[in-house]
Give the backbone structure.
Amino acid sequence: MTKRELTELIRSYIAGGKLDKAIELLLDNTRNEAKNDVIMFSARIHALNRDRRFGVITDETHRVQTARLASSILGVLDEIDDADIGTAEQSNSRGIDTEPRTMKRIKIFLASSAELKEDREQFELHLGRINKRLIDKFVFLELIVWEDFLDAMAKDGLQNEYNRAIKNCDIFVMLFFTKVGIYTKEEFQTAVGQFKATRKPFIFTYFKEANISTANITPDIITMIQFKETLKALGHYPTNYKNIEGLCLHFETQLNKLADGGFIRLENLN
């Protein structure tokens, strides 16, 4: 693909409001320092979409900032030359030396029932704060949540899309409280099966400790008890947490332990 062809495609995506697609196309067709710039754009649009979803920024602020990001993308396109366009395989075939410092993406799939929506959102915000410290180290924690798939069309169903994402992630995190839904259970089973086959993803389960009124107890609580028995049979015991601060602190500690053990490439978060 030539620079002119790539530019025309990128402009058409941006004009159609498909900034994510424009960035994805650039990731697939740039290299060297240009690719590193695009990786930064990818991290930025992910953060903007997350912040709008959680109400951290308004729709108008999101619109303005994505417009600025689109302008920056076009600016990078204007500055790169043909040597920066193409895949790594193409550059190697041309004898071009390509050793850019590329972004290391660590994919984290987060599963939980609807009752822990607030904890899930706070967990994602915490990872966003970690990413701000890691971006200069070319490390990005990419959190995958089911909300990311709402606009997706899948001929074999969205749950199968979730399961495919789980198989491709590095870390699987599950939060549960008074119940475990059938889909959340299926996601856990998918992660376990993939781990047995490939030794990934690493699996972390967290059980929320909190007082509940007896009036709020439903028959669904049996699903939580059964799931705990499933974990016990697997020799896997969940970590209890009482608040979001405890959850985030424990998970951050586990990330550093994985890095120290060489299982994931991640410089110390501090």
The two ends are 41 Å apart (CA to CA). The CA atoms of residues 8 and 134 lie 33 Å apart.
